[in-house]
Amino acid sequence: MTTRVAELQSCRVAGRRRCRRLFALAGLALAAALAARPAFAQLDSAAPAPYRIAPTIKWGKWAAALVAVGSTALGIHQHNAGNNTYGELVLYCGEVITCSIAPDGRYVDVRAEATYQQVARDDRSARAWLILGQAAAVGSAVLFVLELTHETGPPNIPYSGLLVESGSGVTRVGYRVPLRF
Q1: Residues 73 and 134 both lie in one domain
Q2: Which of 58, 61, 122, 173 shows a CA-CA span of 20 to 30 A to 181?
């Protein structure tokens, strides 16, 4: 095995064709090791096969949750940026008398109009991020529920051997042993 490692490390000297062959051989060996399964004779036919949760459900729920958290955080950031820009617009219009609105709905002052357009862009961006966050949260919840709907172990059989009875000022504790003949 150490000679293979040495050959892989000396790929710069050996040339590209030889390196490609070595990497292809290493990839095939890795694929064969991952695909190896027990023979049919080694399988216990009496035991039911355990249900394996698909990797898309197993890992996708966490990825969707991360997307939900991240996009919601970005949405909050964009919303706060829009609020700050709107605050700047209000301060600017309080100082300048020419902050009137033209008949077409735009500000007459160019700086005020540019600031308002930035507020509108920030609001649209925040809305998109928040909608994406909500959709990802719903998707994550659906994947969590899908994982819970499949039993991964034996059914739960409750054991009621311990008896606790309370009466008028007295609590009795006992143990029940089921006998079957």
Answers
A1: yes
A2: 173
| Alpha helices in 11-54, H assignment, sequence order | 11-14, 16-35
Cβ proximity of 59 and 65 under 8 Å: no
pLDDT by residue (tens digit) across 3-56? 554 554 554 444 555 556 655 666 656 555 555 555 555 555 555 555 677 778
Measure the CA dihedral 120/123/128/130, to 10°: 180
User: Which residues have CB under 8 Å from 163's CB, separation 6+?
Assistant: 172, 173, 174, 175, 176
pTM here?
Answer: 0.55
Does 158 reside within a domain?
no
d(CA 57, CA 68): 16
